[in-house]
Specification:
The complex is a heterodimer of chains A (109) and B (885). Chain A is built from four helices and two strands; from the N terminus they run αααββα. Chain A has 109 residues and is an alpha+beta fold. In chain A, helix 1 crosses helix 2 and helix 2 crosses helix 3. Chain A starts with 8 loop residues before the first helix and ends in a 7-residue tail after the last helix. In chain B, the strands form four sheets. Chain B has a six-stranded mixed barrel with strand order 3-4-9-6-8-7. Chain B has a six-stranded mixed β-barrel with strand order 16-17-22-19-21-20. A four-stranded antiparallel sheet of chain B has the order 15-23-14-24. In chain B, helix 14 runs antiparallel to helix 19. Chain B is elongated and about 110 Å long. Classes of the chains: A alpha+beta (109), B alpha+beta (885).
Chain lengths: 109, 885
């Protein structure tokens, strides 16, 4: 296992949502997906904060997408997972998994 | 447009402004997208609320406030390089700009230093906020202000519990001082003009100079001033009298009568104190000096002052009432009703001219305010000047600005660029201003009679300079920077500009009007001040003020010595007349000695009139050209029994015709008994013309002569120093041990108006500066217009306009602007000038030409500037302008 990955809980959720949403991952689509998947409603600003944090850590990269009238003619910032990010996500999953299997069985029922 | 749902516009703008540049778009986009979906789900107003809520969410996030650092966008070096280039490219404008700012900065810096110095007087004592000077106000209309407290009053106040400390002192000012050798024989004589005082040891507990205590070089603060006949001198005096010898134990004889032994030497007092003491005698010596007067409850010397420190939280009024009770218990009822003692806070002492100070310097709060206003106006005018010049210059730089914008220079870059230029200009100006101040303050200080102490090692000075630089840079630089950086690049390249307009009026024109209003207010004020000074100098004072009269002060009134001195003087060929008197008719050296006089029936205080007393001899009236209106001149035989009165006193005594009072009997206040009036003289101004004519009465009491007046009849080529030397020789032959103290009468009178003369010079100086700066600004404005209208002029010329037409076209506008500012200036100046003139009992009438003349002068100077600039433009060959399109 490589160096430990430090990602907050909300960050981790959003991190995975970027992968789930895929090509059209940006602030609004990610909050909507998160709500759909987990029922959790977050502020758009929190989503932005988490995305920028992940980008700073090098897990995500971004580019400006196309403009649309639904956005008042403004472009959106599309996020995409980096190779490093993908590996880190894998590491996260492995770490969770290895912890989970060590817990008593009743939790796995 | 309005059909579409809109998020709160201001919130959107705010987010756009505040967000990091690279994130603004996506944030606004996301917010808008969510807003639209909210509009669908709920109603519009709720959607707007949610929009706001989300926008606020962003404000709480840290990433929102983070700014990208752009290491490769650091342009600091480039700003300075570009600024240097453009300043060098326009050397003329730069020089004018720097010159204007130098004047502004130097003046402001000087004024700030002056004001700070004046405000610092006696603020450094431990109890400064709680020290009070006892003052005396008397008269039915409370118009007589005195600081002298009768000797018996303060000892009776010892029991007032609210007074924590009290110290009495008597300031004598000048004195003649003989140094006695060890065996008591006369060694040398000095004359001190000021600084002689008696103080109690407690003086240094009240006036303690807490910030930098007066160092005792020798002697002890507790004991040196306790014994009668002891004296403490400052280091300067010790050095002056004894050089490097030990002054302790030496004896000094004051006024040829009182011996004091030196028991201590202290460091000099600071310059910003109204206790300018150099020779401090022990207060316990007072009974030696004044004998029985120490128990006097009524009369006093003006120099006898009392300072008290009150307990914390004590009401001043309460203490004043207690003092009033004590006073009433010891004096006659009519006196206690007429005379009131008040406590004046020490921090007001320096600013109240009514009572005066020992340093003879006061400055009113109004004067300080006026100085502050002048500084502020100068600063404003200098800034306006810079704004005018740099916006004018910017038209020449429009292509550069357009280019910068097109090449990706942001508005911020340009603002910083222009502010950098301003900063450089201001720094240059500040540097020159500091140099200028260093060179000129000493002479300026003496010219204005102001103590300008500019201390270059004082951090406050540099702090002031730094803030002046900052204020100038921002005030002068911000507007042009914002204006220029906002140019539309396309228009800028095509040289099409519009500059700021406020309510349809060009901002630059408004600024010019403001500038010239300030200038004209000051020039009008200067004219009036100078006219008033001329009036003081030339008006008939009631005696012959143009005669060359030297006055000599006597220290000894031995009659035989005096008459031999007089005959010695009369022997000199250039002496026309000699008169002996108690005091002079006028001038600051005059000893003001007032007493009461009344008609024979006078009984209580109200029936008496205060009058100024002097003893004269038979030559006095003739020497000074004072006219007798009735009766006869005094002769020596009249002694103190017969008097002359002036017209004012005659009227007060109830007579209208001078003939009637001759021979009448009048009663002097006190024990002086009754005297007869033998003659009436015309009114003359014993005081300055700022005041009224006083009641004057003269007698021929020979024992009271203190002054000798010598009227000189000088040949045109007579050397004045030779005359003075001859007079001094005559003096030394009679009074070998006395210092020859003399003064010219005209100087003596001129000293009345020292304060006004200072103002007059100050005004002249500053109005010259205003005119210079104003014209620099005008020059800038005209250049701007000429540059802009270059093509117009060219076209007009090709179509047949003459040079004259074009010059008139330009000048017309400025005549109008300056006329407008004149119209604004007149009422302001009129108000200010009237207020000032009201200070004087005798003043000039404000005449129309006093306004018109400065107006015309300013107008013609300004027109000269306009003319030069527009003449150049009109003479230019039109082809040069029209060639490049």
């Amino acid at each position: 296992m490589s160096a430990p990955v430090y990602v907050g809980e909300l960050e981790e959720l959003i991190f995975s949502m970027v992968e789930v949403v895929g090509a059209d991952a940006y602030g609004v689509s990610i909050t909507r997906e998160l709500e759909a998947q987990t029922g959790r409603v977050i502020m758009i600003s929190s989503a932005h904060a988490a995305l920028h944090r992940l980008e700073e850590k090098g897990f995500l990269k971004s580019k400006m997408g196309g403009a649309s009238s639904a956005r008042g003619g403004r472009r959106k910032r599309l996020f995409q997972i980096t190779a490093f990010g993908r590996r880190a996500l894998g590491d996260l999953r492995d770490m969770r998994y290895s912890t989970w299997v060590q817990l008593p069985n009743y939790l796995n029922d | 447009m309005t059909d579409y749902p809109q998020p709160p516009k201001w919130a959107e703008t705010l987010i756009g402004r505040l967000a990091p540049e690279h994130l603004a778009e996506e944030i606004k986009g996301d917010l808008y997208e969510l807003f639209l979906s909210d509009v669908k789900d709920f109603d519009e107003s709720r959607a707007r609320r949610r929009y706001l809520w989300r926008a606020i969410g962003f404000l709480t996030k840290r990433f929102f406030w983070k700014r990208l650092t752009q290491p490769n966008h650091n342009m600091t070096g480039s700003y300075f390089k570009m600024a240097k280039r453009s300043l060098l490219a326009n050397k003329g404008t730069t020089a004018i700009n720097v010159a204007g700012l130098v004047i502004g900065i130097a003046s402001v810096l000087t004024i700030v230093s002056i004001v700070r110095f004046e405000l610092s007087f006696d603020t450094f004592h431990t109890d400064a906020g709680n020290i009070y000077r006892m003052v005396r106000v008397s008269g039915a209309d409370l118009s007589e202000f005195r600081t002298g407290i009768p000797y018996a009053v303060p000892p009776a106040m010892e029991n007032i519990s609210s007074i924590r400390k009290m110290t009495k002192l008597e300031y004598f000012g000048g004195a003649s001082v003989d140094i006695l050798s060890a065996d008591g024989s006369f060694e040398r004589q000095f004359v001190e003009e000021e600084g002689v005082v008696t103080v109690e040891p407690e003086f240094f507990e009240v006036i303690d100079f807490a910030d930098s205590p007066i160092e005792w070089i020798s002697g002890d603060p507790k004991t040196s001033l306790s014994e009668p006949g002891s004296l403490v001198v400052t280091r300067t005096i010790a050095k002056k009298y004894f050089g490097d010898d030990n002054p302790l134990g030496r004896t000094l004889r004051f006024q040829k009568a009182f011996d004091f032994k030196i028991t201590g030497v202290i460091e000099d007092f600071p310059s910003n104190t109204d206790f300018p003491f150099t020779m401090l005698m022990s207060y316990s010596s007072m009974p030696l000096l004044f004998k029985d007067r120490m128990s006097d409850w009524v009369s006093s010397n003006d120099g006898h002052a009392v300072y008290v420190v009150l307990r914390n939280g004590v009401e001043v009024k309460e203490v004043e009432e207690q003092i009033a009770k004590i006073h009433a218990a010891h004096v006659a009822k009519d006196l206690s009703a007429h005379r009131h003692y008040f406590l004046q806070p020490l921090r007001e002492v320096h600013f109240d001219p009514n009572f005066g100070t020992f340093s003879r310097r006061t400055i009113t709060h109004e004067t300080i305010l006026a100085l502050d206003l002048i500084a502020l106006c100068l600063m404003m005018v200098a800034c306006i000047n810079y704004v005018n010049l740099s916006t004018a210059q910017s038209t020449l730089r429009s292509k550069e600005i357009g280019m910068r914008k097109i090449m990706g220079g942001s508005q911020k870059n340009l603002v910083v660029q222009f502010l950098t230029e301003t900063l450089i200009v201001v720094l240059l100006a500040a540097l020159a201003a500091v140099g200028l101040i260093g060179v000129f303050t000493p002479s300026l200080g003496s010219m204005l009679g102001l103590q300008v102490s500019i201390n270059f090692s004082d951090s406050f000075f540099w702090l002031t300079l730094a803030s002046i630089i900052a204020v100038f840079t921002i005030c002068a630089g911000m507007y042009p920077a914002l204006l220029i950086s906002r140019f539309n690049p396309l228009k800028a390249i095509k040289n099409q500009f519009t500059t700021g307009r406020v309510a349809g009026v060009s901002l630059r024109k408004t600024l010019v009007v403001i500038q010239f209003t300030a200038t004209q207010v000051l020039t009008v004020a200067t004219f009036i001040v100078v006219a008033q000074m001329e009036f003081f100098r030339n008006v008939d004072m009631g005696f012959d003020r143009n005669a060359t009269v030297i006055t000599i002060r006597l220290l000894n009134n031995d009659r035989s010595l005096l008459s031999s001195f007089e005959s010695e003087l009369r022997r000199l060929p250039f002496v026309q007349n000699v008169a002996k008197s108690f005091t002079l008719p006028s001038g600051v050296d005059r000893n003001r000695n007032s007493r009461n006089i009344g008609n024979p029936g006078a009984t209580n205080v109200q029936d008496y009139f205060p009058y100024e007393y002097s003893a004269i001899d038979e030559n006095f009236l003739d020497l000074y050209g004072i006219r007798l209106l009735a009766g006869r001149n005094l002769t020596l035989a009249d002694s103190g029994k017969n008097i002359l009165v002036n017209e004012a006193l005659m009227k007060n005594l109830g007579y209208t015709d001078p003939q009637d009072i001759v021979g009448a009997e009048v009663k002097l206040g006190g024990n002086d008994g009754k005297v007869h009036v033998v003659g009436v003289i015309n009114n003359y101004y014993g005081n300055s013309l700022k005041e009224r004519v006083d009641n004057i009465a003269l007698d021929a009491n020979t024992s009271r002569y203190r002054q000798v007046s010598v009227r000189l009849d000088l040949a045109a080529d007579q050397d004045m120093t030779e005359v003075v030397t001859k007079l001094e020789q005559a003096w030394k032959s009679i009074y070998p041990e006395h210092v020859f103290q003399f003064r010219f009468l005209d100087e003596n009178i001129a000293m009345f108006y020292e304060q006004e003369l200072k103002y007059s010079r100050l005004f002249q100086l500053f109005s010259a500066m205003f005119v210079v700066i104003g014209c620099l600004g005008l020059y800038g404005l005209v250049s701007f217009v000429v540059n802009r209208k270059g093509k117009e002029i060219a076209v007009r010329k090709t179509l047949g306009a003459s040079v004259r037409n074009i010059i008139i076209m330009f000048s017309r506008e400025y005549v109008a602007l300056i006329a407008l500012s004149f119209a604004l200036a007149v009422p302001i100046a009129w108000y200010g000038v009237n207020e000032w003139l009201m200070n004087f009992e005798n003043h000039i009438d404000v005449q129309w030409w006093l306004f018109a003349a400065p107006g015309v002068i300013v107008l013609s100077i300004a027109l000269g500037v306009v003319f030069i600039k527009s003449f150049n433009a009109a003479m230019a060959n039109p082809v040069n302008k029209l060639r490049n399109e």
